[in-house]
Amino acid sequence: MKLLFVVHTDVTLPIRSMFVDVDSILGCKGKHQIRTLQLGPGRSAAADEERVPLVLVHGFASGVALWLLNLDHLAQDRTTYCFDLLGFGRSSRPRLSRDPLEAEYQFVQSIEEWRAQSADVKVHGS
């Protein structure tokens, strides 16, 4: 828990901590939130639009604390997001399906809804 506190004291770049609502997850009742950190170099919005944001997604048994020692470096040139997957870190802990395919779909759905709520996050890749 001590390291989680450090994220707000040792990171020198502007940091915004927020909870993003993800409400429509198949088979999960109620409202759920994904804890998100947004960091950036503090440039103007126009200058920041030229760079693709970096989104960090942790693996299982992890959370945003995984990147504590690297956040300043990773976010020095572009807006950077890291978030706790549902059921991890400070995100909500909904009762997900026991069926592996349905649980996978629920995770993907929650990430897609998170992305839709974060206006400047676009999906890039091959």
From TrEMBL:
It comes from the Eukaryota. GO terms for molecular function: carboxylic ester hydrolase activity; lysophosphatidic acid acyltransferase activity. Signal peptide: none annotated. InterPro entries: AB_hydrolase_1, AB_hydrolase_fold. Coiled coil: none annotated. Residues 53-106 form the AB hydrolase-1 domain. GO terms for biological process: lipid homeostasis; phosphatidic acid biosynthetic process. One of its GO terms (cellular component) is mitochondrion. It holds the Pfam family Abhydrolase_1. Belongs to the peptidase S33 family. ABHD4/ABHD5 subfamily. This is AB hydrolase-1 domain-containing protein.
